[in-house]
Amino acid sequence: MKQKLYIGMFCALSLITAPLLAIWPFSADNFVPTVENLHTCTLIPAHISTDESIPKIGVADLMAQTNTHTLKRSTLIAEGSPNAIVEPGIHIRDDQQALFLFSPYFTMQKVKTEPGAQTYSHREPGGGTYGASRFIKNKFINGECISFDYHDTLGSINFTQELDQQCLETVFDKIVQQAPHKKIILYGPCRGATNILKFLVQRAKPVHFNSLSAVVLEAPALSLQALIPQTVRSRPAISWTGAIGENLAYAIIRAALPNHSANDGTVIIDNIEQIPKELPILIVHLQNDTSVPGRDMRKLITRLKETGHTSIHLLVMYDKNLGHAHISKAVIYQQVTNAFLKYYNLPHDTTLAAQGDQAIFFDPVTKKLVDLMTLTKSMAQAPDDYIDNQATQKNYDVHQQK
Question: Which residues fall within 8 angstroms of residue 391, CB to CB, at 6 or more apart?
Fold first, then answer.
């Protein structure tokens, strides 16, 4: 009885809200991305430099100085220790053959860098730099890295469509112009991962693919539409609203994000053949992800296999203490990523890569790189909920113990 009352109230709210959304005064701005207005920065691991004269700043300073365009070369301190040395602009070192281009995630969530500290949003100026520094600190990125901010105002957020792709392309182009022979590793979590895929299938040119050595994708969604059902269904407070809640959520997003198109739901799957078949790609999926559905991950992997891609690698994890876009502290993720980078002769942490060799990513007999599907069963033959169910976790546990 109580649930019926809730559903009735929710339907009434929907009827009132829908007309308001149609006339809500959001409008798209005319932002044109440049290296400067994307707050592009160059980062290197703090241990690379022993220069004690470099000033130290916290996250609050980073974001404030980024916003006022007063940021200078500094050592970023977060969680009580150095994350990285940060310098505004693109400054490519000659002593390294490869660099990482970090495509940041999108989150409305506030984060604390330490207990009692001020909270920050990754959407604030400098959020992309801070995000990249965390991946450096956790040793996913073991070398020079270029970061930037997406233009996440209400008038410009378009979730991996044309503007986001232009932002990534702008920074990518500048790197290629400055260092045409540099190997580039694209690294992105969440929205950053989805935008990498969209860029590769829609906008990337031969000059980009010629420089691209590998791609690491953490929790990529196929589209904004794909996120909404999973997000609604996985949250008890709103899961009871069902299809009505999903439609209302999407209506709100469409109203708030005027640049977003409803017609991009199958762009990645339909154009996946645009990605070079030999390009090494590591895809990381959290089985208990409350935003990215396992079925969509299966669609992506299956389609890559169908189109003949030969260097696709998948890590499926389960950890009830981790959530979407917050899995970088998982040791197995660190190990596997570094093993992947080592295998393709790219910058990596030697210790973590050696541990990764003994984890689920390598066949202990042939010593060849294989994906989780090869060790368990073909994803193409798996049921739709394969990477959502406990069978995957059991396989993960077995291979983790070997």
Answer: none
